[in-house]
Fold:
Amino acid sequence: MSSDAADDIMDGTHSALRTHGYAALTMQDIADEAGLSKAALHYHFDCKHDLLLSFLDRLYGQFEERIADPPGDDPAEQLLSLIETVMLPPADDDPHEFRTALLEIEAQAPYDESFRERLERFDDAFTERIRSILAAGVEDGTFREDVAPDEAASFVATYVRGARTQNVAVGTPLDDSLSAFRSYVESTLLPASAEVDTE
Structure:
């Protein structure tokens, strides 16, 4: 498949998921959004399931790039930047509809090993990025010496997943969740005399 055709199909999948959600999504919907015939789409993908697996692979590559090097002058600022990057969608995204569709896909993971394996890659990469920032912060004194990077990273990743789910499911503002996370960093991770820079 040419890179242009792949981009058209993946972009069409993104648009179709926003419009139709996961459950109602059809190959025809994706073909329409991609500007292709259904036959042309089936030439590359046998079914919606296979196409969505490729779509998740593409999202994972983009996700790795987004979390690779969060800005900040110290590990505390880098951690906050990372969490903001993952919690808040890109400015040109349509967060509610697309995140709702992704939540529908995540709900299939207990029953679909292929979906589960791909979603676990997101979780593993995110948790490891958090852990590496926490470990660096403990080593250089930014974070308290009694912070356990593995345990704290697992907690933070779980918190972020829960905050995003709450936002999609019941509309809990992400800004509120970010504010609570900043409080957690200041009260639990930083030495007593330190404060995280939120500017």
